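Appendix B: a complete holo record

For completeness, this appendix reproduces one full record from the ligand-bound portion of the collection. The bound molecule is flavin-adenine dinucleotide. The inputs are the chain sequence and the ligand SMILES; the output is the full three-dimensional arrangement of the complex, encoded as C-alpha cells. No fields have been trimmed.
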Amino acid sequence: MSTKPYKDFSPEWYQETAPNRSYRSILKWGDPNFHKIPKEKLFKLVKAEFGLTDEYFQQKREMGLEEVKYDIPSKLPKEQLDALKTMVGEKNYSIDDYDRLQVAYGQTMLDLMRLRKHIVENVPDVVLYPDNKDQIEKVVAYCAKNKINVYVYGGGSSVTRGTECMKGGVSLNLQRNFNKVIEFNEINQTITVESGMMGPTLEKILNNAKENFNAKQAYTCGHFPQSFEYSAVGGWVVTRGAGQNSTYYGKIEDIVLYQEYSTPIGNIKTDRTPRSACGPSLDHIMMGSEGAFGVLTHVTLRIFKYQPENRYKFSYMFKTWDDAMTAVREVMQGEFGLPSVFRVSDQEETQMMMRMYGITDSPLDSLLKFKGFKDYEKCLLLGFTDGEKQYGKNVYKNIRRVCKKYGAMSLTGFVTKSWEHGRFTDPYLRDTLQDFGIMIDTLECSVNWDNMEQVHVDVRKYCKARPKTICTTHISHMYPQGGNLYFIFITPLTELDEFKAYHKGILDAIQRSGAAISHHHGIGKLFAPWLEGYIGKKEMGAIAALKNYFDPDNIMNAGGTLGLDLTEKQKVFTK
Ligand SMILES: Cc1cc2nc3c(=O)[nH]c(=O)nc-3n(C[C@H](O)[C@H](O)[C@H](O)COP(=O)(O)OP(=O)(O)OC[C@H]3O[C@@H](n4cnc5c(N)ncnc54)[C@H](O)[C@@H]3O)c2cc1C
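The structure of the chain with flavin-adenine dinucleotide bound, as generated:
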C-alpha cells in the first residue's frame, strides 16, 4: 500500500509477497500482496515512546522467510489414512508438512512468534478439505469409532490458539470447499450456508441478492469483525464473535437462527423458529462450543436490508474520558434507537488515532487546542447509523444532542471515514512492526457500566507497568448495561517466555477486575485456564457434562479447549 513518503528517515519496510511455502506465508495477515506501513507521524510516536533510534530500524529480525521444514511424521496408521482419503477424495486430502502447519496455527501472537522462530508443534497428522456435509459426517463418525482426534479450521483467524491440534489427528479445513449457499429465503429473511464460507463471499452474495436469487432487494449479513475478510461463518458462530456494527445488528448469537452439527454421537439440529420456549436453547448451548462438541456444518443466519445510503456518520471529541463514557452510556440507555458502529477511544488511543487519521498538526488539531481540548485528556467518539432512513436520522440527532450536553465538539463524519478506510487493514501493521521486534497484541473483555472505569484503570496499570509500552483502549460493542473494553498493547518484545508472562498478567488483571475474560474472541486453548475462575466450578460442571454427552471420548478439539481437559494445576484461579 502506498503511504505518503516519509520526510525523514524511513526503515526499509518489507513489502514483498512472502516466499512460497515459507513460515512468513503462514504468519502474514490477510492478502499476501497487501502491506501497510505506519504513517510517518505514527512511526515517530512509536520511536519516541520506546526511545528507539534510526539505527535500531536498520535491522529486521526473525522474518520467517525460510521454507517450512520440520520433522514430525504423520502418525496415523496407513489403513486409517486411506479410509479418510476415500471419504473425501484424493484431491481433498493432504499429509504435506506445509498444509499441516498451516491449519495448526492461527493468528494468536504466540503463533506469529513461534512461526518467526520456526517453532513447530501440535500439527495434525492429516488435513482434509471436505466438499459437503455428508463427507464431514462420515469423517466424524469414523473418527469417533476409531478414537481419532478431530480439529476444525475455518478462516484461521483465531487469536486464542483455537485451531491448534494439541493431540494430532485430523484437521478439517473447511475454507477451501465447504462454502456454498444451501438456501436463501426472502420470506423469512434468512440465508443458510455451509460453515466454511468466508465473510466477503457471504456479503457479496447478499448484496447481489437481486441478481443471485431474484430477490426484491439487496441484503447484508450485518456481521463485520475486523477479521471479516479472512474469517468464516462457522468460526464466527462457534466463538460467539462480534462484528464492528454489533451495537445495531447484535453479536453473532443474535444473528444465528438455526444450526446443524456433526458430533461423535450423531447429527444435532437446533430449533428453526425465531423464538421458542421448548426448554433451554440448544442454539445457545452449541454457540461458543468452539469445535469441542462437534463440527458446525450448516448454519442459517438472519439477514438485514442493505441500505448504506441511509447511513449517518458522526464523530465527536470530548474533553475528558469521563464525559465521553457518560455520554455513550446515556446514548445506549436513551431508547431512541441504536447506532451501528459506536466506539469511544480513551486518552492514549485518541492520541494515536489523531496521528493515524492525519489530524495531528492539521487545522482541526489547532482548532481543538484553541477550544481547550488537551492532548492525553481528550477522547474521540466515532460511528455511524444503519437501518431505515428516519430511524438513522433520529438516532443521529439524539447522539448529537447527548454529545453537546457533555461539551463535545463535532468533527463531522470525516474521522469516521478515515476509520472506515482502515477498519480491515490496520491489522497489517502488526506484521510490519513485528519485523523490527515491536509487538502489537490485543485483549478484550466484557464489562458493566458501573465497573467500566475500574477495569480500565486496573488493566492499564498492569500493561503500563512494563516500561516502554503503549496501551490504548476503546469501548465498542455497547449495550444499555455495558460494553466491550478493548486493549491494544504495543511494546518491543520478541521472546516467547516474556510474552507469555506479560499476557498472563494482563488476563489476571482482567479477571481480578471482575470483567468477563472474553467478549468476542472466545476462549480457545489460550484463555482456557481462566474460564473456571470466571464462571465458577459448578457452572463449569454443566459445560463438562455437555462435552461428555456430545463427545464422550474427548476427540473434538481436545487439549485444553474451553478448559475442559485441564488438570487442576493448569487452571488459574484469581477470585
Ligand atoms: C486481526 C484480527 C481481528 C479480529 N477482530 C475480531 C472482531 O472484530 N470480532 C471478533 O469476534 N473476532 C475478531 N477476531 C478473532 C477471530 O477473527 C474470530 O474469533 C473469528 O470468529 C474466527 O473465525 P475463523 O473462521 O477465522 O475461525 P478459526 O480461526 O478457523 O477457528 C476458531 C475456532 O472455531 C473452531 N471452528 C471454526 N469453524 C468451525 C466449525 N465449522 N465447526 C466447529 N468448530 C469450528 C476452530 O476449531 C477454532 O477453535 C480477530 C482476529 C484477528 C486476527
